[in-house]
Structures are given as structure tokens and as C-alpha cells.
Amino acid sequence: MRFTRLLLTLFLIASLASVTGQEEPSRIDRFLQLFVQSSADSSTGTFNTDRPDLQPAERYGYVYNLVHREQHARYRRLSDSMLLTPDQLRYADYRPVAYAAGDTVVLAKDIRVFGWHPHWMATAYQQYRYELLSHVGLFAYDIDVEENGALYTNPDVVRGWEADDFDLVDRAHARGTRVQLTLTSFGTRNNRIFLADLDLQDRLIGDIVGRVMAMGADGINVDFELIPEGFEDHFTAFIVALSERLRTANAAAELSVVLPKMNRNRSQRPIFRLDDLQPHVDFFILTAYDFVTGRDLPGPIAPLYAPRAQRTGYGSIEEVVYAYLDEGVDRKKLVVGLPYYGGKWTRAKAADGSDTTYFDHVTYGSVRARLRGLDNTAYDPTRWSVKLDRSSVGGGPEGTDPLLETIWCDDSLTLNVKYDWVLEEGLGGVGIWALGYDQPGTELWSLLQRKFAPASDTLVYVSPNRTWLAAGTGVYAYRHPILITLLFVFLILVAGFVAALFDWRVRDTFFRNATLRRLYIGAALILLPALLMLGVYLLDYQPSTEHPGFWLALIVSAVLGALLARGISNVFWQHRAELP
Fold first, then answer.
1. Is the C-alpha dihedral spanning 497, 499, 502, 505 positive or negative?
2. pLDDT at 43
3. Are the C-beta atoms of residues 301 and 409 closer than 8 Å to each other?
4. Which residues pair with 256 in a beta bridge?
5. Helix or strand or coil: residue 480?
6. Which Gene3D superfamilies match (predicted)?
7. Which range has the worst mean pLDDT, 61-65, 112-116, 456-460?
8. pLDDT of residue 389
9. 112-339+412-464: CATH homologous superfamily?
10. What are the DSSP calls for 204-261, one per residue?
11. CB–CB of 145/199 below 8 Å?
């Protein structure tokens, strides 16, 4: 017992030594935090910006993120290779919330819900529920760098916004929704030409700011993709100039910037200088989709988490969000864009007999009827996406015979989990690419209402939408507390055994009794590998068994352990033989 007390005392001293005033949590605090689950119930529409977990997040950055992600372990699954069918995964349908007559649906004040209206969706905007949106982005004012007489490549779209029969701005303002014009520039060539031409920038800023004022819009949304290396400072200077001109014209106007999944160029340097941009940008929208495209094997296009065995090049939403937080982006300024579409992979047999895979995007509205209640539909409750397989499908590319169609997308269940994650992380809100992609369905609007727009007049009880997985997921969700508990139990057993050996009677009984000796050694040989495998499994660690060093270390460890046990036994018997 003295030895056990000594171990516990040393652990407590080490924990207390890590405390520095009131700023940094001790090791005990971090340990206890693993056992604490978030009690936030976002379905009630309560969003507290003064939550105590937000301030430490800003102070401790990456370290905090590693600890905080454990609060979301309930969304993880037991097996990385397991997919759940609708029968195994029970959930509530997202029907419209029955509020009392006359109640007003108001979006929560500390949350942004930004939805893009692409010009090709035409009059779909007439069915939008603007009271559930904080912002609508008119997509898009596309920059023309060729000097063809206009500053934009799509005059029909830009001028169409000013037509008498285009009343999106009026509809949005009637519901308190702000409208931004989305300014786009795609491709390294276009961006290089534009960012190097200060005169072109000046004329474009004057034109788009003038259109914002003429339309009665509320700001500008900037979407530049593939900024060439060496033009990072040019982009920052452009944003600063645009912000100043916009706010001079309208002090209440807002400026937002779209961020890529990875803020790194080929030299692994930041593309967007976030510290310089933040003072001039009201919020950022992260494109948290297209993690997998046609060049990749079928998989979720917007995975929430990414176990090592299922990683793609960009990882997961969780990883890219944490990366931006580590770079210093204000949590409340970071909006997570999510897809109302999916990816479709069609494997077909061409005329020459070869198998070819074709990739396409499909809207949620086009596949929603096939997503539930089908034997070929499965949910991935780690990456939180839906998989739909169909064999012998028709309508393949011309000259081919379709064999298999695989679709990965999101639905109301998976988006519900991702919305919860955004709320629990204290982020600025969610983005939608794109509005109208869910038509003719309405369940995604109902989901937005449940999560972000509680009734403001009558107090109602909204039953939380919950998901139940197999019992094994509970073990996986609490894997760290379970593993730590087992580790402490094992250490205490070892400490007690070592302490007991200081008694000569215990030593004499143990070493003289061959049966008891074999029993202890056998128990150790079973317990140690079992504990090791449990830790490897629950911590998602996957050692490479293909590396020769793995097997060499395993063999050397086994041989050394056997030699050590044999040596101790020989020393004991030699000592006993010398006794009088």
C-alpha cells in the first residue's frame, strides 16, 4: 500500500505543478474533461455566446481542439468499416414544427445561415423561406479580365438582377434577410491578371459597389479560387480596398470571404493572410464540401470526421475547421458551408468491354425519395454521410452499359449532426450550397427551423432529435474514460503485486509454488496484449505491420521478457540455495 500511495502522490504533484495561475487547466482538469459530455440541447434554439468553453478555445488553440473533440464522441461508431442501414439507425423525421397560430419564426441572433442562390436556379427563390436565412448570396458577378467591354463575363445574369420582375431582394428584406452580391474569380490565370492590374481592380470595385447601392443590397461576398503563389499580398490589398469603398458607400454593409478547405499553396505557405484580412472582413465561409471528387474512389463529399483508415486528401470538416481556428480565425466569424448535393459514381462497361467510372454531381432533391427505407441505403455514422448503391441502373453515358451507381450525399439526419457540431463548437453558423437544390422537398427547411429559428412568441417544447446506435457505439464514444480506467486498474494491480513482494512470505509462496507462478505469468501474458490491443483499437491507432521493424520489436520484446522472467527466477533459487 505504501508503494501505491507513493504513485498516487507523485501523480498529484505532477498535476499541481502544471498549474500556472488561473490561465492553464491542470492535467487533472484535462483528465476530468474527458468524462464531461456537452449538455447543450441545440434543438431548443438557445445559443449562449458566453459559454465558458469558448474562451479557453481561443487561448489554447490546437491543444484545446484536441481535447474538445472528445465531447462529440457520441457521434462516432465502434467499427470504421461498419455502415448502418435505416433499420439499424432510428431517427425522427423532420416534419414542420407545429407552432401556435400567429407565432413569429425568428433566426437566432448569434447564428448566420448563409445560402447561395445560383443564377441557374431561376425563379426557385420564390419558394425560399427567408425567415430561416440570415444572408442570401446572389451567385455570381464573374470578373472578366479580357477587357471585352464589360467588367463581368455574364452580363445576362448581372443585369438580370436589376430587372423589374426579379424581386429576391425585396422578398429577403421583408423577412429581415440580408443580400450580398457574390464576386467570383476562378483559375490561376484570371486571378494573376486581375490581382496584378490595379486599374482594373479600381474600376471593378466602383462598379460592384455601385450595383450594391442601386439594388439596395447589403454587401459583397468574395469567392476567389486558385490564387497563384506570390499574389497573396495582392489579394489582401484588394480586400482592404474593397472593404473601404464599400463601407464608405454604406457603413452598415458587410463583406464576407469564401475560404478553401486548405489554406496552403504549393510551398505550404498561407494563401489567405487571415490576420490581415480579419479586421476588414465581417465573416468567412468555409467550403466544407467536395472532399472527394471524380478523381477519387467513391466516398463522402463532406465527412464530419475522418478515421485514419478512411482519410482523403483533405481529411474532414472537423480537421479543416480546427486548422483555421489554429491560424487565428475568430470562431464567431467562421461559417461552415455544407452541401445540398451529392456525388454520383457510375461504373459502366464501354463498347470495348472495359470498365469505366463516370462522376457527376446530383442535387439532394433528385435523390431524396430513394434515401430512406431501402435495402441499398446505408449511413456512415463516423463521417456522417449517406451511401446509396444501385445495380443495373439505366441511363448511362452514351455507348455504355451501366453496371453500378454509387451516390454519397447528406440528408436531414446527417445535416442535423453537422449542425449540432457547428453549434457545440461555438462557430459563426452554416452555409448552404445551394438554395433550391432540395426542391421539391421541405424537410431541410424544417431542420433549419428546428436548429436555428425557435418560435419567438409562444413557449413550446421541441422534442430533441436523437439518434440511437448499437450498444457498441457507447463503448466507442466513451473509449478514453474506459481505457484510462482500465489502465489505472492495471497499474494499481501491478503496484499492489510489487508491494506485496516486499513480504518474504509472499515471495516464498509465489516462487516455491510452480502452479501459482504459472498462473500469474499466464495472466500477465493474456492481460498485457489484451490491454495493448484495446488501446490500439479505441484510440484509432493502426500500426503498420508491413514494416519489418514492427515484427522485430515484437520478437525482441517477447524474448527479453522471457529472459528477464527466467533470470529473476534463477536469482531467487540461487539465493535460497545459499541460505542456511
1. negative
2. 34
3. yes
4. 221, 283
5. helix
6. 3.10.50.10, Glycosidases
7. 61-65
8. 84
9. Glycosidases (3.20.20.80)
10. HHHHHHHHHHHHT--EEEEEEE-PPTT-HHHHHHHHHHHHHHHHHH-TT-EEEEEE-S
11. no
Specify the DSSP class assigned to residue 370: G
Q: Is 431 in contact with 115 (CB distance < 8 Å)? A: yes
Q: How many residues does the chain have?
A: 580
Q: Is the N-terminal amide bond of 434 cis, ω within 30° of 0?
A: yes
Which of 22-36, 232-246, 277-291, 348-362 shows the lowest mean pLDDT across its residues?
22-36
Which residue stretches of 18-112 are H helix?
27-33, 54-68
CB 304 within 8 A of CB 383: yes
DSSP string, 69-91: GGGGGGG--S-TT--B-TTTSB-
pLDDT of 123 strictly over 90 = yes
For the record, the C-alpha cell of 354 comes out as: 472495359
Tell me the C-alpha distance between 105 and 312, whole Å: 39
412 within 8 A of 444, measured Cβ to Cβ: yes
Give Cα 450 distance to the centre of its chain: 21
**CA-based nearest residue to 89, from 387, 459, 399:** 387
Give the C-alpha separation, 476 to 122, whole Å.
47
> Strand 401-409 vs strand 283-287: parallel, antiparallel, or unpaired?
unpaired
Instruction: Calculate mean pLDDT across residues 418-443.
Output: 95
- Rounded Cα distance between 107 and 177, Å, is 10
